[in-house]
# Entry
Amino acid sequence: AQTVTQSQPEMSVQEAETVTLSCTYDTSESNYYLFWYKQPPSRQMILVIRQEAYKQQNATENRFSVNFQKAAKSFSLKISDSQLGDTAMYFCASEHTSGSRLTFGEGTQLTVNP
Amino acid sequence: DVKVTQSSRYLVKRTGEKVFLECVQDMDHENMFWYRQDPGLGLRLIYFSYDVKMKEKGDIPEGYSVSREKKERFSLILESASTNQTSMYLCASSLLDRSNQPQHFGDGTRLSIL
# Structure
C-alpha cells in the first residue's frame, strides 16, 4: 500500500516570494508517478506538476518546480514568485505505474498575501 | 480539453434516502473514479472502474455502490444515506494507458445529509 503525508496543514507567503510545500511518501513499488494538484476555491482540481520516479531530473513547470529525493521518499513543491492566484489547497499524490489509483496526502492550504 | 461533468454542485438529502451522484466525461477515457474529500483527510478513493460494467473497490467503499453502464458515465450510489456521508465528492477520469496522462477531475458535488 502507498501512503502520502503532508505535514503542513496551512502555509502563507507574501506575493512575489518563494514558498516550499513538503510531501513524503511510502511505497514498495520500484517505479511510480508523483503529482502535485492544486484546488482553488472554485474547486476544480488542476494538475500542477508530475514526476516519474525513474527520472533523476527534477520536474519544472514555469514557476513550479519539485525537489525529488527518491532515497528519502520526499517530493516537495517550490513555488517561485508567488502570485495571488496561487492561493489554493495543494495535494501531493502518488500512483504506481502498474495501476491507475492515486493516493493523496492530507493537503496544504496555501494563502498568498498581497 | 477533457471535460468531466458532475450533475450537481450542491445537493441536500435526508437520512435514509437513496442518493445518486452522476459523472460524465467526454474524452473516451477507460478509467473513472469516485473520491471523497474531507478536511484533514485529503481525497480517499471510494470506487473506480476501468471498463463498462467493471468496478473495483477503493479504500472506503462501505455504504456506497457504483454503476457504469456506458463508457462515458459513472454513477455513485448511496444506498441509504447517513449523516457521516456528508462530504465533497469528486469524480475523475483517465486513459487506461497512463503514460504521461494524469487524471482529470470534475468540479465536485458538495453533499449534505440531514
Notes: The two ends of chain A are 41 Å apart (CA to CA). Chain A touches chain B through 23 residues (CB under 8 Å). Chain A has a mean pLDDT of 92.
